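Handout, section B. The chain below has 118 residues.
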Amino acid sequence: QVQLVESGGGLVEAGGSLRLSCVVSGRTFSSYTMGWFRQAPGKEREFVAAIGWNVRSTSYADAVKGRFTISRDNAKNTVYLQMNSLKPEDTAIYYCASQGTGGDYAYWGQGTQVTVSS
């Protein structure tokens, strides 16, 4: 059974930083692209960042470029999202996801709440 467990969310003031972690079990972590998504109240879930299996390939949503950094440690089956210069509009539930063999994001974590106060 594949499981993704996020942690690291919380309440932070604008301009602050948080580091999210997502531990994956039940599959060969190093073989798949990992992504972070978020969903704010009343809005649809949106893409935040992704990192390829080989670590060198990363992509970001325009809204977070230059502020967020995605990374992974294949030895620890963990993907991270370092979030700096946080803004109130970054407030959302953040989810990590793992691509399946078909290229879609087939596996999802339960989410972790990030709240940025102004």
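Note. Residues 15 and 74 are 30 Å apart (CA to CA). Compare this with the example in section A.
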